[in-house]
What does this fold into?
Amino acid sequence: MEGVASPEAANNATSSSSFIPLMALGIPCSPPMAILLGGLMIYGLQPGPLLFEHHPDFVWTVIASMYIGNVMLLILNLPLVGFWARLTTVPYGVLGPIILVISVVGTYTLRNNMFDVTTSLVFGAIGYVMRKYEWPTVPLILCIILGPLVEKSLVQSLSMSDGNLMIFVTRPICLGLLITALILLIVSLRLMRVTKEKNVDVTG
It folds into this structure.
């Protein structure tokens, strides 16, 4: 029991801690947080330092809900732990259609628009293909959510500098972030190449 409780407790702790960079800096550190960021932006809430100043009621409601949620989970999970364990034995062939139907119905009820349903199915198919070929889905989600923010900030910066790209390297923070991103890109490409060469050696 302790062997199961320890990793699950750590997993549960990461769910709450992932709100810290999102709320404080506006940076999602996981796909669920990226989706939450998109939802907050739809309702006109921009996560970041100003969120605590402009919408303190929302921030403290989220913090209070974490405490209340943990207490409710403790109360509900103690008597229902056997039921939750049996749910893991349900075949994916049964869960898949149920989840698909609920997702389609939920998507349609948002705006009663079939275009939304088609869009969700298309991206679902894209996600399936990416999982099948072991392509990471996190960068795609982050690009979709953060893309409009990056575009808006880029336009603002270029407007301030009259189209001069040197504005991105004149400040130490901007230059440091660009150098860090470049280093991470080079290291990632290098690691991918080394991993690919090792896989070829093993299969060969």
About this structure: DSSP finds nine helices and no strands in the chain.
